[in-house]
Write a structure and sequence with these properties.
mainly alpha; two-stranded antiparallel sheet
């Protein structure tokens, strides 16, 4: 009996041990499957992350981003700068890509890169000291153009009509969208009661490279607005300190752009306008009359000066309600840094040379001398 009891106890222990071993095996199997599953998901996520990091951040982007590579920068520093500037997604992946391909000898300097550039294009640019990416086409918008004239330029270089361009830049929904995106640049002033077109003067004159054969009109217009924002942002703090607005600046600058031919002229004409404004004299600038008339004329007649329009600075004191054209950087800077003069009058002779006067009598003498 005692032997049978011992055998039973041993059998029960073996049975229990087998159950424990089975349970442990099951637990180990579940844990192994869980690790494999998590590892698989993690691997899949890691693979997708690396794959996306190797691709351009935004293949359709045409925005030029200024990137400065200091002298003596190593690959670690360059990679970090590219990530911080928004050119690449992950600095480490760019660094490892460059190392794997044995790329080195990067040049210090200032670069205008885009989010649409591949790693190879970025590397080639940094090695040659030049932006490697070649645009499909470029669109040059000269200084002193109105929205309607810019539309004609766009029509000649793209598949978009001037009418479609003008419809977009005067569309309320599009304007509101841009105001939300560029709140410091585009304020409620552009919707002032007497402003003819909200975006007049806000499309920056420059050459725009496009890397897509058929960029949308929104892309084209927004690239110009972005450039204006980038240019004017340098002066935001100064304008705020002087209690002036972007709208005021671009309106003033547009008058200089239409009146002047050289940098010195812009600064001197700016001084004339400032002197007139301080003396509560009307600006009396012919380009505002032509803008009020809505048509170009080789010569402004006396009867034209009588046109009843808020933009006519012969009939209204102060600046017009808004810009009359797109102004370049030299005109913008002339507004902010005018010459110091006592001039109140100026005229352009038949060769386009401007002549300045302090008194009206002196001005009339120059009219007789240069225009008759």
């Amino acid at each position: 009996m005692e032997n049978e009891s011992k055998k039973k106890i041993m059998f029960d222990r073996m049975k229990k041990k087998k159950k424990e071993v089975k349970l442990v095996r099951r637990i180990v199997l579940v844990i192994a499957l869980f690790i494999l599953l998590v590892g698989g998901i993690g691997g899949f996520i890691a693979y997708n992350y690396v794959k996306s990091a190797l691709e351009p951040l935004d293949p359709k982007s045409e925005e030029l981003i200024e990137v400065q590579i200091p002298i003596g920068s190593g690959l670690d520093t360059i990679s970090a700068i590219l990530e911080k500037s928004g050119i690449v997604k992950d600095a480490k992946i760019f660094k490892y890509y460059a190392k794997f391909n044995n790329e080195s000898d990067f040049q210090a300097g200032d670069y205008s890169l885009t989010k649409a550039m591949t790693f190879d294009e970025i590397i080639k640019s940094l090695k040659t000291g030049k932006v490697y990416r070649k645009p499909v086409f470029s669109l040059t918008v000269p200084e002193g153009l109105t929205l309607e004239q810019i539309g004609t330029v766009v029509e000649k270089k793209t598949g978009h009509s001037a009418d479609a361009f003008f419809t977009l830049v005067t569309d309320e929904a599009f304007i509101d969208k841009m105001m939300a995106k560029y709140p410091v640049l585009l304020t409620e002033e552009i919707k002032g009661e007497n402003v003819r077109y909200a975006l007049e003067g806000y499309l920056y004159p420059a050459t725009y490279p496009f890397f897509d054969e058929n960029p949308s009109l929104e892309e084209i217009v927004e690239s110009m607005l972005s450039n204006t924002d980038k240019t004017i942002s340098t002066y935001y703090e100064l304008l705020q300190s002087e209690g002036k607005s972007v709208h005021w600046l671009l309106t003033f600058a547009s008058l200089l752009e239409e009146e002047a031919t050289a940098q010195t002229d812009r600064q001197t004409i700016a001084s004339v306008f400032y002197n007139r404004l301080d003396a509560n004299m009307p600006l009396q600038t012919d380009p505002t009359v032509l803008y009020a008339l809505g048509s170009h004329k080789d010569r402004v007649l006396f009867e034209d000066l009588e046109v009843d329009n808020p933009y006519n600075t012969y009939q209204n004191q102060g600046l017009p309600p808004g810009p009359i054209a797109n102004a370049g950087k030299s005109s913008i800077e002339a507004v902010l840094d005018p010459s110091k003069t006592n001039y109140f009058y100026f005229l352009a002779d038949k060769k386009g040379v401007n002549h300045f006067s302090v008194t009206y009598e002196e001005h009339l003498q120059k009219v007789d001398e240069f225009l008759k």
